[in-house]
Batch of 2 targets.
Target 1
Amino acid sequence: MAVLPDLLHDWILSPLRALAFPPLCPACGRTLADDSPALCPGCQELLEAARLSAEALRRLRFSVRGDDALDDLLVHAYFERNSPLQALIHRLKYQGGVAVGRNLGVQLGGLLARELSGSTCTGLIPVPLHRARLRERGYNQAAVIAEGVRSVLPLPLLDALLVRPRATETQTGLAAAARRRNVAGAFSVRAGAEALVYGGTFLILDDVVTTGATLEACARTLKASGAARCVGGAVALAR
């Protein structure tokens, strides 16, 4: 008997709620129309323009060939200051924007599905956070991105396979050599999981790549336990 009042309640309050709290573009804060996508048209256009071209992606992938850690590297778009992508990633990392992170993961997943078509992968490994940072943030942004990727690439999410027992300072502002020193030895395969790593091919996922030091450190750790191949994937590439 309470169904009709509930329906009337929703019918009356939903429009009022939409007027009081209209959907906003998560990148610039502009009000979105009811039928708008996740971003306003202007930010969506800027985000599309920031995607790596086929030639830029080819050069990026070629740059890691012959590396003893990463076998391949795929990135969705360029990370520019004061850009919609920067706003989205900051929202994900510092403002609890989990839905934004999953959406970015879906876009990265589309790239990975196209470029790795036919490849056999063991699973997805998000770059782990140290437990103190995880406790502070409440979630791992790389794991959120991995959830979005997984909705496109139906691979096992191996988010407990790699751990980060040593806390590191933020990579922001560090030069390339300092970044590599900062994350050297920061990761390890979870005790007892070495057999799952041996002979496997893994997609290691992160939010932003600058020098690739973090992805390389993760890949090097996995290969030390017998991984056959490690591919890095990230939403953004810092220029």
Note: The longest strand covers residues 229-238.
Target 2
Amino acid sequence: MAFIGKTIDYLLHLGAGEKTFRTAKSLRKNPTSAENILWMKLKNRQVAGAKFRRQHPLRFYIADFYCHEHRLVIEIDGDVHFDEHQKEHDVNRSAELERFGLHILRFTNDQILNSIEDVIKSITDLIQNQERL
């Protein structure tokens, strides 16, 4: 029975370590304005009935938002993500997470701040399309 609990935990966090959990907790305490805005829309199963977690540890990474049921990671990219080195890191990170069967959606701060309804529609559409498969 204990083994099953560990298996479920492993699948939920993909073996994330203690340091990643501590960092995620710290990030939850200091969200950006874009993260706050999106969280207000995602929490309490407001989008397609899906449960989202914020600053969720996955392997060596921390997803801004994660829905385990739909294997969906949502990332919000601020200005730092336009740097060439950071873009390369983001591509590698996405590839690593996709190896585990996760879907990655990326939005910019600008999209969250100025077009939140379009963002929510994109998330809803992806979830509903998954359910049809």
Note: The chain has one domain: 2-132.
